[in-house]
Specification:
The strands form 4 sheets. Strands 9-10-11-12 form a 4-stranded antiparallel β-sheet, with helices on both faces. A 3-stranded antiparallel β-sheet has the order 1-2-3, with no helix packed on it. A 3-stranded antiparallel β-sheet has the order 5-4-8. With 255 residues, the chain is of the alpha+beta class. It is built from 9 helices and 12 strands.
Amino acid sequence: MTIGSHIAWDDTVLPFQLDRSDIRGRVARLDGVLDNVLKQHAYPPVIEALVAEAYPDFAEVLRRFGSPPIRSTATLAGNIANGSPIGDSMPCLLALGASLQLRRGDKTRTVALDNFYTGQKQNVLQPGEFIESIDLPKPVAGGVFRAHKVSKRFEQDISATCCAMSYQLQGGKFTNVKLAYNGLAPSPCRAPKLEAVINGRTPDAVTAAELDAAIAASFTARDGLRATWTYRALVARNLVLQFVEESTESTPEAV
């Protein structure tokens, strides 16, 4: 393909002709234009800073959430309503105790995200109803939130699984544990049997064998395009073990 050499490369539209052909046209150079568009549509710095300050791991999950064009056009409510089994925001929101404000005309209601999904890509939304807002409880003193996404590529890739966990330590023991995953069930969900293994225990009392048993009792084994069940179950257990082991490093005691 021959491109007009008399036109500067920083121009956004260039004429071309296919070699040994009468086909002519114009090709758009979008690199500079696209950079300017993305800069205008990035997360507002104040919002990014607030999320990073309160929940650094959530901010990291969001940073790896799709490509800049996707993040610039998508909405958090859309991600929730779509209900993909591997939606990345939902484990974080579930572990943080999020609730949804739903609206249909002048009628509103509040639904805990825990109770929103009824099956794979199915939820409690009624015809004409939509998610108006997502509410998160304020961070509590001594509260800890951890999250990590595992995927084949580090960025802009679909999860094998994402695990999120919130908790407090009182007297060296875990309390108020909320643990959630994607990729293990028909919809993102809490893992109450794993929470029960952790709640009321000291970090050194939580064992891999107990977590493995709780995972086996909580989810139906199924292989997927992104990972086998063996791999997902192993990662699901190891992420919890990592969060538990790291809890002793710098976690403040709740009062």
